[in-house]
Write a structure and sequence with these properties.
With 409 residues, the chain is an alpha/beta fold. It is built from eleven helices and 17 strands.
Length: 409
């Protein structure tokens, strides 16, 4: 497979007017506009009509992660605000966020700290009528601060503590503070497993009623979990892609779901969101590894930033790959695959399992836009020009698109 290292990120720039970036969502999720690209033509409708444009017998793959209330606002002894933003558990290489969220009494997390100069190493306290949380600096690292949190009563999980005391971390381009309504609207209706610091925004357009309609019409649905990290929306600041450090994120998917994906290979699998797509394509490459190294460890099974390209010469059929991964899980007595992926999807990457994606409109010069370009080729610019000219709303609370990949046959 050709390499994307030398891609110039300036080739993926466009002018995004601020008036096309809504700070609030529409009142009704399914009333968002939907751009449909089928490999040749571009058209528009409303999201509630998406069933009419999905391929027959499609399988929709959802990311059921739940956004945590990752912003905690403390005050120092002078009553000056100090904001702590939770990034992930300190032992991130061994502890996935969902497990760390269930800790009781004490936990260490890597964090970003706003107004750090105001924090003179004293213990910070944040409390309400339910719980009292204390924060102490453990270590100052280059990119984050390790903080030890303790709380009373210790019967509370960390998830319950921050749900009570924290705020949902809405994106900075909303140019406003988080509000109570964001606790509901910045979550998908199918969110189940806490651990993300940003929403898988394509899913924000679905309602329970629409999901029922899709299933009744013959569209299958399946879920996995990928906990979205703060690096998801990190712009590419280097001139070429080689200089960009892709974030690693925890994902998990059970054996039964992998079997379902394998059994659905003859049907179009559509990823709902870039996070679902990255997880799905990672599963393929994990299967490639398991095929060539049947005794590989779980840690070695994880996908690095460039591995999808480095393993290109070892690529095998989708069914072979998934069967190899299923066999590896069964031989190791594992019913749920829980590991990290750092996969970077960019041109000239060709999808291995997915046939398309449902996704919002993304920022210029972002790895999310590169995913769109990998699926649609040079037509990504026509798609975005159409969206801009037709006043589609962009980014997290914006409109949506259904992008179907051209067949590689």
């Amino acid at each position: 497979m050709a390499q994307p290292y030398d891609i110039s990120i300036s080739e993926f720039n466009y002018q995004l007017p601020q008036n096309l970036v809504p700070a609030y969502p529409l009142e009704r999720r399914e009333d968002s506009k939907l751009l449909v690209y089928n490999g040749n033509t571009i058209s528009q409708t409303h999201f509630k009509q998406i069933q009419k444009f999905l391929p027959e017998n499609a399988l929709l793959l959802f990311n059921n992660t739940r956004v945590i209330s990752a912003r905690l606002t403390f005050e120092n002894e002078k009553q000056q605000e100090i904001e702590i933003f939770l990034l992930g558990p300190t032992d991130y290489s061994n502890t996935e966020p969902g497990t760390a969220m269930q800790a009781k009494g004490s936990v260490n997390w890597n964090c970003l700290v706003g107004n750090l100069k105001r924090w003179k190493e004293e213990q910070l306290v944040l409390k309400n009528n339910e719980v009292e949380l204390t924060a102490n600096i453990v270590t100052k690292n280059k990119t984050s601060i390790e903080i030890k949190f303790n709380w009373q009563p210790i019967s509370f999980t960390f998830a319950e503590v921050i749900e009570s005391l924290g705020q949902i971390p809405i994106p900075p381009y909303f140019e406003r503070d988080s509000e109570a309504s964001d606790k509901e609207r910045y979550q998908t209706v199918y969110a189940r497993h806490s651990g993300s610091v940003a929403a898988p925004t394509a899913g924000l357009h679905f309602t329970e009623e629409l999901l029922l309609q899709l299933r009744a019409a013959g569209t299958k649905t399946l879920s996995l979990t990928l906990h979205v990290g703060a690096g998801t929306f990190k712009p590419v600041k280097s001139e070429t892609l080689q200089g960009h450090d892709m974030h690693a994120e925890w994902m998990d998917i059970d054996l039964e779901s992998i079997l379902e994906i394998k059994n659905s290979l003859g049907k179009p699998i559509i990823a709902v969101g870039t996070t679902s797509l990255r997880a799905l394509e990672s599963i393929y490459w994990m299967g490639v590894k398991a095929y060539h190294q049947p005794h590989i460890s779980l840690h070695a099974l994880e996908i690095g930033q460039w591995e999808a390209y480095e393993l290109g010469a070892k690529a095998i059929g989708a069914e072979e790959s998934l069967q190899a991964l299923i066999s590896w899980l069964q031989q190791n007595g594992i019913n749920k695959l829980t590991c990290r992926t750092q996969i970077l999807i960019a041109p000239p990457y060709q999808l291995k399992l997915a046939k398309g994606i449902i996704t919002n409109f993304h920022q210029p010069q972002s790895t999310l836009l590169l995913i769109v370009a990998a699926i649609t080729g040079p037509n990504w610019r026509n798609i975005y020009d159409y969206a801009l000219n037709n006043k589609f709303r962009f980014l997290s609370y914006g409109d949506c698109s259904l992008l179907l990949a051209k067949s590689n046959d």
